[in-house]
Amino acid sequence: MSKAEILIIDDEPQIRRLLEIVLESNDYKVSIAEKGTLGIIAAANHPPDLILLDLGLPDMSGHDVLKELRIWYNRAIIILSVQSDEDDIVQALDNGATDYLTKPFRTAELLARIRSAIRRNFGGEDKSVVESGDLTIDLTARMVLKDSKLVKLTATEFNLLALLARNEGRVLTHQYLLKEIWGTGFQQETQYLRVFIGTLRKKIENDPNYPERIITESGVGYRFQSSL
Q1: Which CATH architecture group holds 5-122?
Q2: Using CA atoms, how far apart are residues 219 and 228, in angstroms rounded to an integer?
Q3: Is pLDDT larger for residue 20 or for residue 82?
Q4: Of 125, 120, 1, whose CA–CA distance to 50 is shortest?
Q5: What gap in Å lies between CA 161 and CA 42, rounded to an integer?
Q6: How does residue 194 score in pLDDT terms, banded at 50, 70 and 90?
Q7: pTM check: above 0.90
Q8: Residue 182 host element (H or E)
Q9: For residues 143 and 153, is the Cβ–Cβ distance under 8 A?
Q10: Could you tell me which residues come within 8 angstroms of residue 53 by beta carbon, excluding any fewer than 6 positions away?
Q11: Residue 149: which residues within 8 A CB-CB, separation 6 or more?
Q12: DSSP state of 123
């Protein structure tokens, strides 16, 4: 099997070198662009399996690079940025970023996010059954089992859980979840989300106070994590 190819778009030499060493030592093929325009050209000439994109670039905004790429590039884009402002993160996710990490980041976490994103590139989102320890979510049958026992969910609870599970490992913003589950008129009604997330955690988590499956990304949204 050929190596997965990753394009790094980042203007910091130290970060580029670190990423290059970490990725190549984990059997990825790496290419590098120091500017946004060069990154767009590189991705167009030879589309990689995944892009690591810094938001703070010298020639153009990383948000603009992201929007330009999303016109035609449909694989994973993970944001790496020193900008930890929640609005900035939400904007990137709403513009099509697959995931994000703020600098400094742990290399083990970065590699885990990369593996998850690349799996989705090759059909991970189309799985009909998602398993997480003692939890089984059958997306086709609309059935959830925990410890081999049926978990009773309302239609809305199941729709919310299914949306999260189909996007396993990916951060889904509050606004996106509200729009997809309740409609465009409910995108500011975050209390709806908190109530339903709380109810789901009571039904599927081993300890709802310390959730391991539905993870909160503070101020941004939620992420479903299947591996415990």
Answers
A1: 3-Layer(aba) Sandwich (3.40)
A2: 23
A3: 20
A4: 120
A5: 37
A6: very high
A7: no
A8: helix 174-182
A9: no
A10: 9, 10, 39, 62, 65, 66, 69, 77, 78, 79, 80, 97
A11: none
A12: T
Element (H, E) at 155: helix 155-166
First to last CA, the chain: 28
pLDDT at position 210: 94
Domain ranges of the chain: 5-122, 126-224
Sign of CA dihedral 89, 93, 97, 100: positive
Q: What contacts 24+ positions apart, CB below 8 Å, involve 141-145?
A: 144/203, 144/204
Token couple for 222:
């939620």
Tokens at 28, concatenated: 């990825």
E-state strands within the chain: 5-9, 29-33, 50-54, 76-81, 99-102, 129-132, 135-138, 143-146, 149-150, 171-173, 214-217, 221-224
Contacts of 19 (CB under 8 A, 6+ apart): 8, 10, 30, 52
Give domain 126-224's CATH architecture. Answer: Orthogonal Bundle (1.10)
At which residue do the structure tokens 């490992």 appear?
169
